[in-house]
Design brief:
The protein has two domains: about 140 residues, Tetracycline Repressor, domain 2 (Orthogonal Bundle); about 110 residues, UbiA prenyltransferase (Four Helix Bundle (Hemerythrin (Met), subunit A)). The longest helix has about 30 residues. With about 250 residues, the protein is mostly helical. The protein is about 75% helix and about 0% strand.
Length: about 250
Amino acid sequence: MAVTVAATALAVGLGQTVWGAVAVASAVFAGQLSVGWLNDLVDAPRDAKVGRADKPVASGQVSVGLIRALVVISATAAVGLSLLSGLLAGAAHIVALVSAWAYDLRVKSTVVSVLPYTVSFGLLTVFVTLGLPAPHWPPWWLVATASLLGSAAHFANVLPDLADDRATGVVGLPHRVGAAGSRTAAALLVLGASAALVAGTPTALGFAMLPVAVVVTVVGLVVGKRPGSRAAFHAMLVVAVLDAAVLVAATA
């Protein structure tokens, strides 16, 4: 939901029409569903092995067959809805989705596990700007902001699952640098994203947002040290929405 809201807010802030914004929101939402469902489908045996009670597929509350069908439906819908924004814009979002699906299927267990997050989030801005009434490529700082936020989210998202992941053979970049290294990477990346945004939109609101981003990030990382807590990941999402709000205000 946070990714969908941020992408839609970006589209609206850059001058997208109502129906164009609906197309962006629908495509991104369907794509996020496909990525999340595929992830749970692929991870079901691993999640069951480590007793993840919060995973309905692994616990048997939702059938594998149903999730497999939902993955196909949502992925197909995401591709079709992406093309409503135009061929080039749609292609950008489809490549972003392929990158995310690749993460689910294999890349999460490699040293380049952060790469799909970097690529997919960066391409999300390309999808939005190429789909505008006056299509154009996004400026470097906008792509950098999104890519850095996506990369930060990767390190924050896996923090609660480091031990379980290792036990089931998933050893991505965060697992190799450890919990402390991942927290440091997440903090530096999310603050770098906010700095890139301020560099591109040097407004009073943008400068005021920087200390807020610092506080949100620090609180998320501190609270996220509790076993099983996803506070660090949620903090990254909050900063992402704040960044989108700053951009919307700057372009209004």
